[in-house]
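Practice problem 4.
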């Protein structure tokens, strides 16, 4: 019977030992996480929206200006209108100057008259793009430098006068 009593007491002893160790564990404080370490279910671990994450990435890499300039290229038909955009294509944005190639000199002149309004609208709608001026380029003129009958050097200058 003594052996059976020992066996009956064994589970109780284990239970009391476990209970006393769990009380000691509950009283302890967790160690503070190291600086920069993340902890599951802690504050700041909520998922972020994709747009916020991409904006933060663009800001950290310094892409804001390039992205704003590409938005101008995408919105060009809305900025100047569909009919005008069919005759004026964006060429480049360099050093704050937006270059636009026009189909004819008449379209270039018309857009030069609209320059102030266009710059104001671009500055208001796309402030990060940094566009300070617009340059309108007319159509390419034919070059008389090449061909079977071209003359090396300056050539005659009284042809058009």
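Answer key:
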């Amino acid at each position: 019977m003594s052996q059976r009593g020992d066996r009956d007491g064994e589970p109780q002893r284990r239970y009391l030992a476990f209970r006393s160790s769990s009380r000691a564990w509950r009283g302890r404080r967790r160690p503070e996480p190291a600086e920069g370490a993340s902890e599951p279910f802690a504050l700041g671990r909520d998922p972020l929206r994709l747009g916020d994450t991409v904006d933060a990435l663009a800001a950290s890499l310094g892409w804001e200006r390039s992205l704003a300039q590409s938005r101008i290229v995408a919105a060009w038909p809305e900025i100047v209108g569909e009919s005008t955009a069919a005759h004026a294509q964006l060429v480049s944005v360099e050093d704050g100057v937006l270059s636009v190639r026009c189909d004819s000199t008449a379209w270039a002149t018309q857009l030069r008259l609209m320059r102030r309004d266009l710059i104001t609208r671009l500055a208001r709608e796309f402030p990060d793009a940094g566009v300070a001026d617009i340059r309108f380029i007319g159509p390419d003129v034919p070059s008389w430098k090449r061909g079977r009958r071209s003359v090396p050097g300056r050539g005659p200058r009284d042809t058009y006068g």
